[in-house]
Here is the input.
Amino acid sequence: MVQQIEKMAKVLIIPRFFRIFAAIFIKLKKQYMNKKAFLTVITMLMTITMQAQSTQQDMDDMYATELLKAGTIAPDFSMKTPDGETIQLSEYAKGKTIVLDFWASWCPDCRKDAPEVVRLYEKYHQYGIEFIGISMDTDVEAWKKTIEKFGITYPQVSELKKFKETDIAKAYGVKWIPSIVVVGPDGQVKLSTVLTTKLDNYLKELTTDAQ
Here is the structure.
């Protein structure tokens, strides 16, 4: 029975948090728990996991509905970095795949996702994937401090306006942050999502041949 559960745990795509608990429960089974109690706990664990996965999938249905759809030509934009340098999408892209990360230093969910976005940049930048952070900050110093805190090295730009007043949010249909839009070498939107897991999956598939 334990071997069967271990095999299932390897096959199931579940968050690391639940994998840790699965490992703990397997150890408990070996040492203390009877078969009935063990199966009850595992059933509960798997139910919670499936609910969590379903909730994650539903997040795009809730928050990404107005983001530009795949196949749409990505609107060009020109914005300034914290140091005053101007970055224009059409010039910066130059036939590359660009990940546009819409966020703000004051946004709790953005701060929560920031380490993962940085990890994905470091993972895929070697394959020619570029990232641009598009901030909804109005406070330059707070913006700079957050960039430094999370070790963000890819370009950051902002209009320094309130979220709902920015031209970029209107152009890309951003109603929620963090949001992610991937623009292909042809200038078309390839992916729009609020989930870093979907970004990771897309970039993994895109760079498979190069890995």
Q: What stands out?
A: Confidence is low (pLDDT under 50) at residues 1-17.
